Every structure is written in C-alpha cells, then in structure tokens.
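Lecture 7, part B: from sequences to assemblies.

Below are the input chains for today's worked example.
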Amino acid sequence: MALLELQDVTSGYGYGPDILNGISLSVESGRAYCIIGPNGAGKSTLLKTVAGLLRPRRGQILLDGEPIGGRRPDLVLDSGICYVPQDRSLFPEMSVRENLVMGAFLEPDRGVVSERMGRVFEMFPVLKDRVNQRAGTMSGGEQQMLALGRALMIEPRLLMIDEPSLGLAPQVAEQIFDIIRKLRELEMTLLLVEQNVLKGLACTNWAFLLDLGELRLEAASDEILDDPRIRELYLGRQRAGSQPGAGIGDDT
Amino acid sequence: MSHLIQVIILGLLLGGVYALMASGLTLMFGVMRIVNLAHGAFIIAACYVAFFLFRDLGWDPFVSLAVTMPLFFLLGMGVYRALFPRIEGSPRFGEMTVLLTFALALIVEGLLSYVFTGTFRSTDPSYATDAVRIGDFFIPTAQFYSSITSVVLLVALWAFLYFTRTGYAVRATMQNRTAAQIVGVNVRRVSTLSFGIGMALAGASGSLISFLFPFFPARHWQWIAILLALIVLGGLGSLKGAVVGALLLAVAAGVVSDRFGPTWSPMTFFGALFLILLIRPQGLFGHKARVG
Amino acid sequence: MTQVEKKESAGAGPVLPTPGKPRSRVRYAVPAIVTLFLALLPLARPLIGQPYNYVLQLGIAGLMWVAMASSWNLIGGFTGYISLGHNVFFGIGGYTAGMLLIYVGLSPFVTAPLAGLVAVAFGFLVGLVTLRTRGPSFIISTIALLLMTGLVFDNWDLVGGSNGLSLPLPPFPVESVKIPFYYAMLIIAIGSVYLGYRVAHSKFGLALRAIAQDETKAEVAGIDTRRIKIAAFSLSAFFVGAAGAIWGYSLSYLRPTIFFIIGVAAQMVLMVIIGGRGTVAGPAVGAVLLVTLNEVAVSQFGSSELNIVVTGVILLVVLLFFPLGVVGTLRDRGHLPGFLDWD
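Predicted structure of the full complex, as structure tokens:
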C-alpha cells in the first residue's frame, strides 16, 4: 500500500479559484519524488494541502489508508508528515538551538531530542557553529539548512520540501542538494518541489509532472526528460537564446 | 531638579501599571493579530468587580486579584471561542477584529452603564493616600504597591513565555504562525489561551487601578486610546516595546501633567503616537512587515 | 445571463461592480422619485398637520446621517481603512461655521461648504501622517485624533471649552425655521451620495478597491497608494464637515460632547456596515434603517444606556452573520432590486 495517496483532490486559496483540479497520485515509502511543472501548476499548493495548511475542497488524502484531508497542520505533523515551506518559516527571534528544539515540539522525551539534535549537527556542521545565533540573522543557505534540520528533529515518515534551492547561490544550493541526496540514500520518503528541474531530478528517483492542477506525467527521474511530452511542454516555452537544459520550466 | 526627579519617580511607578495594561493587548495582537478595542472596557469592568468586593465584602483590591484574574481568564477564553474562530480565515481579518472588538466595547460599556450608572467610583483602601518618604522624595504607597505587583505579574508572564513549553509555543506563534503550525503547535489552543491570559492581565490591571484613578463606564475610551498609542510607539506585537513605551510615556505624561496640568496628560500619549507615525511608523521595536 | 461573481463572504469586503447587468431606466426612476418626494415634503404642511416639525426634524437627522455614512464609506468602505473617529470632521465643520457666524456674522448656510473644506484640509494634514501606515495603526490613530481634538476643544476658551458656545438664532420665523435646515441637509445628503456614486464609477474608485483588496499588490501594480489614500480620506471629510456646520446651527449650540464623542463615530460605522460597506446605496440604506430603528426604540423604550448595548449587539450580529450588509447580502444572493444597485 502506498504511504500517501491523493484521490481526486481539489483545493485552492481562500475563496479563489481551484488550483489543484482533481489530482490523484500515490507516494511509496522509501522513495524520493520530485514534483516539476510550470508556475501556477499547483506544486506548492499540493504540499500545503497535504500539510494541512489548506483544506481540500474535494477528494481524499490518505496516509497509510487513513484519511487525513482537512486535518490541522499540527495533527498532520503528529502523523509523521513534515513540511518545509518555501520561505523556510523559521522563528526569526529564536536561536538555532531553539528552532531545532521547537522542531521536536511534539517529542516528549528530552533525551531523544538531544540525541536527534546531535545527529542534525553532524549532518549540518554549520548549524553547530551557529547554535546560539538568531535565525533571522542567518544567510539564506544557513536558514535552509536550519529548516531542513528542524524538519529532521521528528524523524518524519514523509518529508516534503518546497523549493529548497530558492534564492540560494549555486554553490550553496549544491550543498542542499547533497543533503537531499544523502536523505535519499537513507531511504527517507521525500516529496520535493524544485524549480531547478535538472538538479531536482538528479537527487530523486521518481518524478511527477504537474500542470494546471493535474498530474500530467509520472516517470522515473532519469527517464522523464527523454519523454517527448516534456519537450513539447517545456522547450516550446523556452525563450530564444537560453541554454538548452538549464532551468527548463523556469519561466518565472 | 529634585522636583523633576520626583515627577520621574511617579511616572516610572505608573509606567509599571501601564505596562501591565498594555501587555495583555500586545499579547493578543502578537499571537493572533487581534486589535482588541474592548481591552479598556474589560479593565473598567474589572475595576467594578474590585469595587464591589471592596465595598460589600471589605476585600482589599490586591486580594480581589484572586477573583479578577481567574474570572477574566475564563471570560477571555469564552469570548475568544465565541467570536474569533469563525472569522479566522477571512481575508479582512484585521478589520474584522477591530470592528468586532469595537462592538464588544460598546456592549460592555452599555451594560456597565446600565447596571452601575455613570457615577465616578474608586476603591478606597487605607493606603490609597499614604506615602513613604525616602530622602527628599515621596513614594505614594498606592502607586508603589501596584507598581510592584505589576512588575511581579510581568515577570511571571516573562517566565511563562521563556521557561515553559507552552510559553515557547506562544512565542513561536507570535513570531511565525505558519511555522508554529508545522512544528506541531495547536495554534487554535494557543490563541485561546493567549486571549485568556491577555484578559487575565486586563482583570489584574482593573483591580490595581481601581484605587489609582476614578472610573466610570465611558472612561474606557481614554484608556484604550492611551494603551493603543503606547503599543504603537513600542511596536505592535512587541512585549518589550510595550514595557518600554509604557515607562517612557508615563514619565513624559507625568512631566506634562506637572507643567501644564493633569488634563493635558493624555495628550502626551496622542502626541507621541502621531510623532512615531511620522518618523518611525513601525514603532521602536516593531518590524516593518508588522505594520498592517 | 451573465454570472455575478462570487464575493468574499466571510468579511465585509468591498463589492465590485456587477458585470453585465443592464442599466435600465427603472433603477434611476426610484431614486429620482424618492428625491422628488423628499424635496416636496416640506411643502406638504397641510397634509402632515401637527407632527410637521417632528417630521422635518427626523428628516434633517436622517439626511445628515445619510450624508455622513456615505462619506465614511469612501475611506472605510471603498478603501477598507476603518476610521473610528470620523466625527472629528463633524466637529471641525460645526465649530468652523459656528465661529464664522459669531465673529464674522456669516450664516452657516453660506459657510457650510467652507466648513467642509476646512475639514478636508484638516483631513489632508492628518492623513499625511497617519496614512503612512496600514490597518491597525491607522485605526488607532483615528481614535486618538478624535479624543485629542475633543480634549483640545474641551479646554479651549476661544470655543467655549466644555461649556460650549451659544449661537445666534437663525433669522427665520419659528414655525418654519426647520425648512431651510431640511433643504440644506437634503443638498448635502444628495451631494454625499452622488460623490460616492461618482467615485465608485471612476478610476479613482477602482484604485481604492484595489487597495482594499490587497495593498501590496496595488503598489506593485504602480498605484501611488499613499496619495490615493490621502485623497480618499480628505474627500471623505467634506460632507461630514458641511453636515456639522448645519447641524450645529440647527441646535443653536456648540459643545464638544455633541460632536466629539465616540458614539457618533459608532453610529456612522454601524450604519455603513448594516447597509453594506463598499456599496453606493448601502450607507444610505443603513442610515435610514438605523434612524428609523432609533426612533421606534426611543419612543417605545425611552432613551437609556441600553441603546449602546443594542448598537453593539446589532453590530456584532451583522459582522458575524451578514458582513456584507443589506445591500451586499442581497446582491450576493442575486436578489438586489435594481433601484438599489448603484454600483
């Protein structure tokens, strides 16, 4: 059985139009997925709906067969789904340590919390160096690492990351992708939205192509770029003079 | 010169109480982005509770804290649950909270007026007119006790926010509501609790000012205007700002009152409000993004 | 038939013009008839008989509130900036005309527009400072402004302080003294509602609504939000000031407690919210409803502090359950009669 399943899910913001239009997909445990697609396709909306920040207007979301659609975000986290938003959503006036501790807010055992913090520091030595620095004063890359580290404080069953490389310099983004690759090796179930399609596909196994709130295509990461439908969808939208392959779908 | 210091001392003492009054308001705005125009009305309502406990049961206003704080805490949670969850997702949330609490203020004022009439009241404990002499300076005991109590309560609030798990959850919600949700904070529960705490602080303030200033139902407009001016100066949503703003403005108001007469003391707050809007609209400790 | 767009229902937001609805002659016929009726009313003395002065006074008050509510709607409805101290302009207008009458001998019937302009200037200066911020800070500043101005007038000997000033009586025979006040208020009310109509159908109005919907997006789209907000705020002061001039004169007395109490602001806000914030007809509807309700309540139950409670309760109920007001809710459900659809 799939870990996460979306069945005909429709959702949108406030009283605005539907962004997700009856989308159905399933996520298997242990795999890393990348969601790609043009802007406005509903990629972030998908993650937010699963995370509980948006209520699905129609359809079902099942975690291990159990419906979780419309649940409060804190209960969604309790079920093991961790969400790292596009803007990282850190606590700007709290220190790195405090942010990490907050990441484990639902964990009652303080010993477990310290242990996990230790592991996060191993994975992100930069955070250890800045353990008492206020999150709001850190650089973009450091904030992203803190956001990821914070998500790992509860050992999620499913980790959803929205545009991890957004706003980061290429070298810094590369570090983030390395970490994501490492998480893939650890067989963590990942659901990634990434605008940098090549990089995103390179650190995942499987890809979902979204457009206009629907699932258009589903394929293995290393095969999806060969699909003629992709070429049609993307290369047709590329501006003349841009390098082939770089930033496909990047018509921001 | 020593006269000026005397005025400043009085100002600081009052500032402590103003800080207590403003802290509840700040908490509500910081956690839930609610501008509670009814805060002053509830403070006055608490004054009436203290007044009747004093007059009919002989309870000292400080003792009445044991009643006003829990009572208003529960009342606060009830009011929050009744009014605010239904407008939570509204795109016009900010304005709605203003209008709702405006309506609430009218209701509370009307009820207090109807039941207690517009007579000026105040509680009259024995220490209300005493003063202690330290060197060249007089420290009125009433202001002194209320100031100490305010400081104690504010310290308790600070300890709650910085040393308890729930307090962390409250601060997290104040700093980034979405982030709090995704780390597992039940923001609905935190909001209800925070509103309750804010009202409890209003209740405490009411007990304390019942012997400092005469009160009547319509007086809450002046209080809320002063408190709002104060938190805009300090920076909306900043507790530190509320305390600093309170102390600064209370001292300034004291000086103005001393120079120009007590009628003009509220002007200090209003003048400061317009001044801060002119030169630094986000307040002393506010963030640019917070404005609006 | 064109579909009417679904509006935001959970908040009293601005209402966008109805696309595609035919602008038939009928919708203008009813307001025209009503206006004609109102204009001819004072001439129907023999028909009205004994309660003539009462009827006219009710008309004066009602028209005044229509004018003030429609003006408030410019800033509080179209632009989404709630002014909780708007009657500060009411007072400024009243005192300006009153002082001109006492010291220069000019009749407020003549100086009302000037009083309105003084209010506009005041609004402009204040707006320069207070409209640099958004939402909460602005609202707080309007309350502070009201209280501050009230405090100043309360302690200013020149304007009589808290005791106020007596104004010379209007030079008209007692039995028909209310007639000129009635017509003055009628003109002011028509002016205010018409201003709302023109603003709603202008590019200026579109900019205001954009600001109400999402100020950041409006700025990004190139709208000079600060200038537009200040313009709306200043404009919203004119008819309120003019109404103040006439009202003060009609009372023959100026006093801070008449003009500068929060109760007046509360009424303005309540009327617009009940009627329909952000619509053109809403404020007028709300004003008429509330004045009628007040009259009925006072005649049945007498005036008491419970009036404030009732005002608060009505506001609460409308905000929670009918945030779009009468006109807004009717439109939302597609039942809005043509003669009220002035958007």
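Note for the exam: Chain B has a mean pLDDT of 91. Keep this in mind when comparing with the next example.
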